[in-house]
Amino acid sequence: MWRGLSALATRAARAPRRLCARRSSGAGPWAPGSTIFALSSGQGRCAIAVIRTSGPASGLVLRSLTASREPPPARSACLRLLRHPRSGEPLDRALVLWFPGSVPGLRPAEAGEFTRRAFAHGKLSLTEVEGLADLIHAETEAQRRQALRQLDGELGQLCRGWAETLTKALAHVEAYIDFGEDDNLEEDVLEQADKDVRALEAALGSHLRDARRGQRLRSGAHIVVTGPPNAGKSSLVNLLSRKPVSIVSPEPGTTRDVLETSVDLAGFPVLLSDTAGLREGVGAVEQEGVRRAHQRLEQADLILGVLDASDLASPSSCSFLDTVVAPLVAQSPDSCGQRLLLLLNKSDLLPTSTRDSDTALLGMPYLLLSCRTGAGLDGLLQALKTELAAVCGDPSTGPPLLTRARHQHHLQSCLDALSHYQPATDLALAAEALRLARRHLSHLTGGGGTEEVLDLIFRDFCVGK
User: Fold this and answer.
1) Most confident of 64-78, 176-190, 202-216
2) Is residue 53 classed as helix, strand or coil in its secondary structure?
3) CA–CA gap between residue 106 and residue 226 (Å, rounded)
4) pLDDT band at 8; cut points 50, 70, 90
5) CATH architecture label of 215-392
6) Among 33, 75, 190, 374, which has the highest number of CB atoms less than 10 A from its own CB?
7) Does pTM surpass 0.90?
8) May I ask the CATH class of domain 136-210+401-458?
9) For helices 451-458 and 126-137, what crossing angle results, to 10°?
10) How far is CA 290 from CA 258, 279, 282, 344, 394, in A?
């Protein structure tokens, strides 16, 4: 239980920023016995501000501000006149909420300290804390949904279920070690433990083979726009980002470096890269741009290949189809390789009578688009939504995603420990493998008491959270 908490909701955000910028002497960060305060509603001018305190001296602070001997009724909002604690000058009228359990030492809260106290008192698991941090920083609808699922405890509950399976298996193995010759022990106790452990191994392996979808959803998928010169790549980037990111010109080779912008596409976070047109026999500067374009292609999660629909037979278009598109199309559908959407831009220049015959020569799926008129944009956005759901995972359905490298590390370590579970060879070593595997799962949801890990997780929280 927190030893004290009060919140003052005032009509104007008058709390000075310097209150959150210094630390009182003798009270280091995360000191459990100190009283902390912060502007919880965020910086800047606003109609309502929430000032939050937590710790032993919260009651004293509340009484000094409201000139009252007694705080308001517990967990009830009361309208009180706030006064300067020394001069008695009226400051504002505010709603006061009091959560009792209070007494001495007040200092500004560290970033994330309120949440860290909730974690320390068992009100939030570590994965739920990470979900709250992701929700604070969410910029797209898909990120918000994923963060809410993690904040609701879905990933933590899944891990706790796995830990219970390991605990039960460990209990069975240790019972067999101690009472293996006892007639009261069920005959198939080891077989059941082995069956449960092998099922858990399969579940862990399935989550670890998610191709980092959760991490892409949290940090953003990388989409690279590529193609021969003058196909309309820069026009497409400007169209998708809804701002003039790239210079558009009829002169081939205008883009000579990689231009990148963050975009919300169909609710998914995306880093969109505009690259130099791929061609040979150009100057030194454009050659470097082409080299960087190839480098970005190797890093891409999704590639948007753009061709001029009115000039499919040109040498540059044919070369792009042979060297870039064909190898990607030849990939196995079950592989975790890069994904491709082929776009035929400038469809407005194609006569209707020849459109089907000209494009049928490609022999592969494509989308028709006109960046100039916007025709075909809705179809492209729907295709991007489908592809991004495959790359990032759908946050609305399926099992909870692993959103951080830390999750991957502990699950992989758990799986590695289970690889040493061989009860037929040595029961004592098998029991130790189960203990180690269970320890890694506890690290995932509880941090394992490692202060460096906790500091890293709470570092990016807002002050007042």
Assistant:
1) 202-216
2) strand
3) 57
4) low
5) 3-Layer(aba) Sandwich (3.40)
6) 190
7) no
8) mainly alpha
9) 20
10) 9, 7, 9, 21, 34
